[in-house]
Amino acid sequence: MGWAIAVHGGAGDISRSLPHDRRQPREEALRHCLQIGVEALQSNSPPLDVVELVVRELENIPHFNAGRGSVLTSEGTVEMEASIMDGNTMRCGAVSGLTTVVNAVSLARLVMEKTPHIYLAFDGAEQFAREQGVEIVDSSHFITPENVERLKLAKEANRVQIDYNAQPIQNDTKKEKPCANGDSQIG
Amino acid sequence: TVGCVAVDSHGNLASATSTGGLVNKMAGRIGDTPVIGAGTYANELCAVSATGKGESIIRGTVARDVAALMEFKGLSLKEAADCVVHERTPKGTVGLIAVSAAGEVVMSFNTTGMFRGCATEDGYSEVAIWSD
Question: How far is CA A1 from CA A124, B82, B102, in A?
Answer without folding.
Answer: 42, 22, 5
